[in-house]
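# nightly structure sweep
# worker-07 picked up a monomer target from the shared queue
# config: single-sequence mode, recycle default, output format = structure tokens
# input follows
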Amino acid sequence: MASITKNSKGERRIVFYLPSGERKAVWLGKMAEKQTESIQSKIESIITAMAAQVSIPLDVAQWLGKIGDDIYLKLSKVGLVEERTTSSKALKRKLGPFLTAYIESRSDAKQSTLTFYGHTRRLACSPIADPCVMRVLTALVGKETLDVDEAKEAAQPGAGRSQVA
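# output follows
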């Protein structure tokens, strides 16, 4: 089972053994005891499922889907979960070609508009893209494939508005 330890600075970590017998620790930093206990119980459920070679419980899977990238990354580094494929790096790899194809398909746009689109592509796909922008883009691009025609249609003036005759 997993145990919680706290160092002199008040930083908490969860120490546990993998089914292979390897000792691991997840450093959580300064965190409330209740939150740490909640994470500990989830880690214990994951370890139990790994040992029994069964799927993790539904509530743990839902929790994994909701937690932030920082805690999820810590769990993946110690081998409890697979790396997320919808990380901002993966999104940028998917978003870059999509934006390029979209910009190239806009033969009707003025040069200044295309320049603006190019700036948008460069900023959205940069290594230091704003995390807030990336969360919004992740929500908007939550598909496996991106359809340039759908994006063009949505970008048309008046798209989504009802026409009054």
